[in-house]
Specification:
Immunoglobulin-like; six-stranded mixed sheet; 3 helices; 38 strands
C-alpha cells in the first residue's frame, strides 16, 4: 500500500514538474519615449503602422526564447526581433490579445487592457513559472520520506489537495485559511473529522469533510466547477455594437446566458454617438443587467458643433443708381405750373459694412442669431441695421455651402444734405431750360432692410456673395414745396466672416 502511495505521489510530482508560461501581473505598460523607428519594420500588410511590444522574459534562456510562438486574432500581423533577454514584437496596434506558446512550457493568453497606438512602444514580462511551489515540493518530499520510513505514527495525519483545471485555489481547514495555495500539503492534522473548503475566483466553492486517521495521508483530487451567470445588455438607442473583453459580440439588446463569472469590460460603439466603456461583474447564478443611454455627438469631420457662436463679418461692394422723380410747382417766372425732374444725388456708388453676429449653432446644419452692423453706403451716408440672422448649411462637413439671411431695420446715423440739384423744364420753355437754385435735398437710409447671401464655409472662415435691399428715403424742398419719397435700391457685396465658437458641446 505504501509503495502504491509512493508511486502515485511520484507520478503526480512528475506530471506537475512541467513549467508554465505566465504574463507577470501589472507588467504591461506603455514605455514613454520608446517608438518604432525601424524603417524596415514599420507597417503591416494593411499599411497600418506597427506598435512595438518588448516582451521581457524570466527563467527563459536564449534558445528557449527563440522557440516562443506568438499568435493573435485574424487581423493581427507580426514581425519578430530577438534581443538580449527579450523579444521585440512588431504587431498591429488594433490587436486585441496575444497568445504566447512554447513546446515545453505550454501557452498563455493576454488581453490588452487598453488600446495601443501605431509607432509607440509597450512592454510586458513573460515568466516561465513552475506549476508547483517550492514549499509544496519540500512538504511532499518530507511526507513521502516519512511515510517510507514509517515515521508517520501518532495521533495525526495529513491531507494533500490537487485542483484541476487550475492551481492556485485557496484552502480553508476548519474555517482557518491556509497560506499555501493548491497544490496543497497540510501540516499535521489531528485524528478525526475536519471540514475542508477550496475556493477560487470564477469557480464554485468545493466543500467536503475528511476523516483523518493515524499516520495516514488523504489525497483529494478536486475538479473545480466553473461558475456561470447571465449578462443582459440594453441601450438607448438600440443596435449599438458591443465588445465583451475587446471581442465584438453583436448589437444590443443582447442577453448572454451561462457565461463564466468574473470581471468583464464592455465597450459600446455606434456611429454619431460617444463610445462608452463600462466594467461589470458577473456573479454565480445571477443576472447582471446593464442599461446604457448613449450620448449623441456631431461627427468628427464637422467643426460646427452645438454651442454659442460669435461671427464678425466685413463686406465690400456697390449700390445701384438712384431714381428720377418729377416735382410740380408754380413758377412766378413763367406764371404757370412747371415740372422739375429731380434725380437723387448718386448714380452707382461704393458701399462697405462691418457686421457683428451672435447666435446659437443649433446643430451642424442650422444657426440662428442676432446682428448689428455699421453700413457706409453711397459714400457719405452711414446707417446702423439691427437684424435677425438665420443660416443654413447643406452638409455636415468642415467644407460646406451655406445660405445666409438677414432681415431687420436700419437707422441712419449720418444723412446727406445737398443744395442746387435738379433741372426745371416746362412745356413752354422746353428748349430753354434754366436752373433752379433754391432747391435742397435730404437723403438717408432709414427703414426695413433685407439681405440674402450664398457662400462657402471652410473650417471657421466663410466667403460669400450677397444681394440686399435697404430703404432709401429722400426729401426735396423747392421754394415752398416739399416732396417725399422712398424706395429700395439694391446693393451687391462680397462678404467674409469668421466663426468663433464660445462653448462647444
Amino acid at each position: 500500500m505504501k509503495k502504491l502511495l509512493l508511486l502515485l505521489l511520484g507520478l503526480f510530482l512528475s506530471l506537475n514538474m512541467m513549467a508554465q508560461l505566465e504574463v507577470k501581473e501589472g507588467s504591461f505598460k506603455e514605455v514613454e519615449g520608446f517608438v518604432n523607428i525601424n524603417t524596415e519594420i514599420m507597417y503591416d500588410d494593411n499599411d497600418k503602422p506597427y506598435a512595438v511590444l518588448k516582451v521581457k522574459t524570466e527563467n527563459i534562456n536564449d534558445k528557449e526564447r527563440h522557440q516562443l510562438l506568438f499568435q493573435g486574432d485574424a487581423r493581427t500581423f507580426f514581425e519578430l526581433e530577438y534581443k538580449v533577454g527579450e523579444v521585440w514584437v512588431y504587431l498591429s496596434y488594433y490587436a486585441s490579445y496575444l497568445k504566447i506558446s512554447h513546446p515545453d512550457f505550454g501557452s498563455t493568453e493576454f488581453w490588452f487592457p487598453f488600446d495601443m497606438y501605431g509607432k509607440k512602444g509597450y512592454e510586458l514580462t513573460l515568466i516561465n513559472k513552475p506549476s508547483l511551489e517550492e514549499d509544496f515540493m519540500k512538504r511532499l518530499e518530507a511526507l513521502e520520506n516519512a511515510t517510507a520510513a514509517g515515521l508517520n505514527t501518532g495521533e495525526y495525519g495529513y491531507v494533500v489537495i490537487k485542483t484541476t483545471p487550475v492551481n492556485g485555489a485557496t484552502v480553508m481547514i476548519d474555517g482557518e485559511e491556509k497560506e499555501m495555495k493548491t497544490p496543497f500539503v497540510s501540516d499535521k492534522l489531528g485524528i478525526g473529522h475536519h471540514r475542508v473548503r477550496v475556493v477560487k475566483d470564477n469557480y464554485k466553492p468545493y466543500v467536503t469533510v475528511v476523516a483523518i486517521e493515524e499516520g495516514k495521508t488523504i489525497t483529494l483530487d478536486v475538479v473545480l466547477e466553473q461558475a456561470f451567470g447571465n449578462l443582459e445588455i440594453v441601450t438607448q438607442p438600440e443596435n449599438v455594437v458591443i465588445k465583451l473583453n475587446r471581442v465584438e459580440r453583436g448589437t444590443t439588446p443582447q442577453l448572454f446566458s451561462n457565461i463564466p463569472v468574473g470581471n468583464y469590460k464592455i465597450e459600446f460603439n455606434k456611429k454619431k454617438y460617444k463610445t462608452v466603456v463600462k466594467d461589470v461583474i458577473v456573479k454565480d447564478g445571477e443576472t447582471t443587467c446593464v442599461d446604457i443611454e448613449m450620448e449623441k455627438i456631431s461627427p468628427a469631420n464637422s467643426l460646427r458643433k452645438q454651442g454659442w457662436v460669435f461671427r464678425p463679418e466685413i463686406g465690400f461692394g456697390i449700390i445701384t443708381s438712384g431714381n428720377t422723380h418729377r416735382v410740380s410747382f408754380y413758377s412766378t417766372l413763367v406764371d404757370e405750373n412747371v415740372q422739375l425732374h429731380v434725380q437723387d444725388y448718386y448714380t452707382t456708388d461704393l458701399c462697405f459694412d462691418i457686421n457683428a453676429n451672435v447666435g446659437y449653432q443649433i446643430n451642424p446644419f442650422v444657426y440662428f442669431g442676432l446682428g448689428i452692423a455699421m453700413d457706409l453706403k453711397a459714400t457719405t451716408m452711414l446707417s446702423m441695421p439691427i437684424y435677425l440672422n438665420p443660416r443654413f448649411y447643406v452638409n455636415n462637413k468642415k467644407t460646406s455651402i451655406f445660405f445666409d439671411i438677414k432681415f431687420g431695420y436700419a437707422i441712419s446715423i449720418k444723412t446727406s444734405e445737398i443744395e442746387h440739384i435738379g433741372v426745371m423744364n416746362s412745356s413752354l420753355y422746353a428748349n430753354n431750360p434754366y436752373n433752379i437754385n433754391d432747391i435742397t435735398s435730404t437723403t438717408k437710409f432709414n427703414g426695413l432692410m433685407g439681405e440674402f447671401e450664398i457662400g462657402l464655409e471652410y473650417k471657421y472662415s466663410s466667403f460669400g456673395i450677397s444681394i440686399g435691399l435697404q430703404k432709401f428715403y429722400s426729401e426735396i424742398h423747392i421754394y415752398d414745396t416739399n416732396e417725399h419719397w422712398g424706395y429700395y435700391p439694391a446693393y451687391f457685396m462680397l462678404k467674409y466672416g469668421y466663426n468663433i465658437f464660445l462653448n462647444k458641446k
